Amino acid sequence: MNSLTLSDFPPPRTIATHPEYSPRISYVHPAALEYPGKRPDRSFCVIDDFVMPMQPLFKNSELTVVVTDQAGLPRNFDDIAEERGVAKLSERIPIVGFGSNANPSQLVHKYRLAECEGDKTVIPTLKGTIKDVAAAYVARPSMLGGYIPADLIHAPGSQTDVFVNLLSQQQLDLMMRSEGSSYVLCQYGTVRIDQTDLCLPAAMFLAEEGSLVDERGMPILIKGISDSDAFSSMSQEEVLRFVGQQIGDELSRYQANFEPMHHRGEDAEMIRWFFRQNAPVSLRSPQEIVYGGLYSWVQRKDVNRAREHRRRYAVRNAMSELLQTRGFVSKEWSLLPLVQPAERFEEADKNSPPKLKQLLQPS
After folding, report:
1. pLDDT above 80 (res 232)
2. Could you list the residue range(s) of the whole structural domain that residue 60 is in?
3. Are residues 107 and 117 in contact, defined by beta-carbon separation less than 8 angstroms?
4. Is the pLDDT of residue 16 over 50?
5. Do 253 and 241 share a structural domain?
């Protein structure tokens, strides 16, 4: 892989539509058919708008990575980090990316608007595999564009390609906010890093809702990432069609009748309704995923966008409830029951997963 740019890896939210796309679910945004998005074929490092090849080297319990820059020259990542004033490798926290967090443009999108300056576009990422785990669809749509997102499930005998984002503390804080209260950050399993003999313990975001299951009651894997004879696999387009066949008619009736209280009132009433929900000003509490985006639009006095955010949240919940009622949700394969309480991290600024320097200490 030569040095590429972010435009070579479009995020799911900008990929073109399909003319026959999921007609029975009008809520789902038609720009997400290629979720989880294109990903590199090896370890990479995002620096500004460039996606550069990265070579991990592991020897004597020490991990170093060499980045090939735009000029084709090899550079130690720590030298780059020192120049830019960002966290060096040993200070970074490994977080498994198995959905759109393996897409370079999606990663940058999470940080571009955030106040983390130089750190926001320096993201080293290791490619590897994890055993006895598979990437499957969660039984709810995303708030961003309406695609069906991913989760990792217990699947003995499976092997799944994943990417390990090496995040600074600040990047992890922002990642936790973007993932929201639907996912729990946990320390679980190890990732075998490609081109090395390193088995790296890493944290991952695991969904609480349960897996989307097919007519047999089996999880639906994400085609091209995890394939197994025991489970069916679908592309994003196929899984959206599947959901549409199961609940599309009833969901359409719900959307037609949906008229939240604040939509009937004036803008002032809309804002009063919002603040009655005790929405957090800091956007750092567990409720932020419910009201966080809405709060940002109210702050900007963009009431139409705030209404749309509230509508999407309500319709997302309706989809989840309909799938549950129809029997298309199961927690049987969830990894969460296998995670010890001490290995859950509810707030990264108070209780973070270990950094590389802790994980790679000689035993």
Report:
1. yes
2. 4-246+332-359
3. no
4. no
5. no
